[in-house]
Structure formats: structure tokens, C-alpha cells
Amino acid sequence: MDKKTILTILAVIILPVLAFWGVSFSKESSAIAQSGNKPQVIKFSSTMCLECKQVEKIFKEILPKYQDKIEYISVIVDSRKDMNHNLIKKHKVQLVPTVVMINSSGQECKRFEGAVSKEKYEHAIEGLK
Question: How many domains does the chain have?
Fold first, then answer.
């Protein structure tokens, strides 16, 4: 084999791996670092969970009202490999749905495990600073 063939084979094997790693890393790091000075609302859910679907409906309804006030992050937890997500580890999420609210200083100030009413979510979001 000549050098050109070896380089081509390495490129075909290595480039997709590097591209995947780069995309995965940028998603997680952007979700963590993107906050700026806005409070964050992080929703951990699963596509197979009925309570999660209820929470998703509530958030679709109330989020447009708060889109300028908060940063919303949704983390889907559907498989064991998803459990390695940095935000899941950082916030010690053990069940879904879980909604974590973080103030503009970066401190967790409210946590909901399980579905709660639309009013409770709105009241908590309004209290975020």
C-alpha cells in the first residue's frame, strides 16, 4: 500500500469519529455555557413517559410568555447512554420528569420531580431572578 491509500483509509475512519465527537461536545457545552445572565429552566424527560408528555404540553403553552426572561433547555433521557449527559450528572437527576430552575447566579433554586400544575411552573418561573 502506498501513502495515499493509507491516508485515505485513515481519513475515512477517523474523520467521522472526530466529527461525531465535535458535534456531541458542542451540544453539551453550549447547553451549559449558553446561559449568560439569564435564569435557566432545564426539563429532563423521556419520550416514553406519560407524565413527561403532560409537562411538555404545559411548557409549550407557557414558554412563549417567558422566552425573553429565561433560557430553556430540554434534555431527553431515553436510554442508558443518555444517562451520561453532563447536566443529568450535575443536577443528580434520578427520575423523569424533573424540572430544575437555576437563577441568574447559577444556583439551583427550585426543583420539581414529577408533573405539577401549570400554575406551579409559572409561579416558579416568575420568581426566577
Answer: 2
